[in-house]
TrEMBL record:
InterPro entries: Kinase-like_dom_sf, Prot_kinase_dom, Protein_kinase_ATP_BS, Ser/Thr_kinase_AS. This is Protein kinase domain-containing protein. ATP binds at residue 25. The keyword Transferase applies. Gene3D superfamilies: Transferase(Phosphotransferase) domain 1 (1.10.510.10). It comes from the Eukaryota. Keywords: ATP-binding, Kinase, Nucleotide-binding, Serine/threonine-protein kinase, Transferase. Belongs to the protein kinase superfamily. Residues 1-261 form the Protein kinase domain. One of its GO terms (molecular function) is protein serine/threonine kinase activity.
Length: 265
C-alpha cells in the first residue's frame, strides 16, 4: 500500500509487459454513486473524481503526474498513474528542516511552470501543498492529487466551493460567500509552499480553526533563524504571493516575471 484516504487506497502495481512500477488509486464505486449529503461527502467525492479523471486525461506537462489508464472492475474504479519514487516534498522538507535557497528556487520554478500550464487552460488545482508535490530524480517535481481541481468556463470565472487544506487556503476561499474566488488562490498556496521550504514551518501555523487562521493571515514574519540568509528578493516574492487582497496579489504571469524567478530561466 502506497497511501490511503477516506474513499481510496493507492497500491503498487506492475505493468506485466514493461515491468514498469505504477501507482493504482482504487475506489469503491458504490460509495461514489451516493447522492450528495449521504455517506459523508461521497457525492461530492464522485464529482471530484470525475473532474480529476477529466483533467488528468487532458493535461500533458513534464511537471504534472500522468494518468495511464482507467479501469472499471466489478464495483471498483481504478486510476492507474505513473509511480513517483522520490516521495513527497513534505517529507523532504521535514528530513532537512528547511531547504537552501537555490534548491527551493529549483523546486518552486517547476511548481510555477505547472501552475502556468494549468492556468493557461483555465484549470485551478485548489489543493497545492507539499504533500501533493512528488519528487523524482529525472524530473524532480510533479504536481499530483487533482481531486479538488476545477475546470473553469473562462479566465475570469469564479469559484464558490470552500475546499482545500486549511493551512494553505487563501483568505478569499474562506470569505467566498458573495464574490467567490479565482484560480489565483493557487498562487497564495504557492507562497505558503515557498515560505515552508525556506523557513521549515508554515507562515500562519497549522491550526485548523478558521477563526485563528483568519487572524494570523493579517501578518507573518521572517524573523526565524532559517530566514537569516534568505535573499531579499525571495522574501519580496513571498510577501507578494501572501497578499491577503487577491486584487493586489500577482497572477502566474506576473509571478514568473519576478526577479527571483526570472533568474532561474
Amino acid at each position: 500500500i502506497l497511501g490511503r484516504g477516506t474513499f481510496a487506497v493507492v497500491r503498487l502495481g506492475v505493468d506485466l509487459m514493461t515491468c514498469e512500477r505504477l501507482a493504482c488509486k482504487i475506489m469503491d464505486e458504490a460509495h461514489l454513486r451516493l447522492p450528495k449529503g449521504m455517506g459523508n461527502t461521497a457525492g461530492d467525492m464522485a464529482s471530484g473524481t470525475d473532474q480529476e479523471i477529466n483533467i488528468l486525461r487532458t493535461v500533458n506537462h513534464p511537471n504534472i503526474i500522468r494518468i495511464r489508464a482507467i479501469i472499471h472492475q466489478k464495483d471498483l474504479l481504478i486510476i492507474i498513474m505513473t509511480k513517483i519514487d522520490g516521495g513527497e516534498l513534505f517529507d523532504y522538507i521535514v528530513q532537512r528542516g528547511s531547504l537552501p535557497e537555490h534548491e527551493a528556487k529549483f523546486f518552486f520554478y517547476q511548481l510555477l511552470r505547472a501552475i502556468e500550464y494549468l492556468h493557461t487552460r483555465n484549470i485551478s488545482h485548489r489543493d497545492l501543498k507539499p504533500e501533493n508535490l512528488l519528487l523524482e530524480k529525472r524530473t524532480p517535481l510533479f504536481v499530483g492529487d487533482f481531486g479538488m481541481a476545477k475546470i473553469l468556463n473562462g479566465s475570469l470565472a469564479r469559484m464558490q466551493t470552500t475546499c482545500g487544506t486549511v493551512s494553505y487556503l487563501a483568505p478569499e476561499v474562506l470569505d467566498n460567500a458573495v464574490a467567490g474566488y479565482s484560480k489565483n488562490v493557487d498562487l497564495w498556496a504557492a507562497g505558503c509552499i515557498l515560505y515552508t521550504m525556506l523557513g521549515g514551518c508554515l507562515p500562519f501555523g497549522n491550526d485548523d480553526r478558521e477563526s485563528i487562521l483568519r487572524k494570523r493571515m493579517a501578518s507573518f514574519t521572517f524573523e526565524y533563524r532559517t530566514f537569516k540568509d534568505v535573499s531579499s528578493e525571495a522574501k519580496d516574492l513571498i510577501t507578494a504571493l501572501l497578499q491577503p487582497d487577491p486584487d493586489k496579489r500577482p497572477n502566474i504571469e506576473q509571478t514568473m516575471c519576478h526577479p527571483w524567478i526570472a533568474s532561474q530561466h
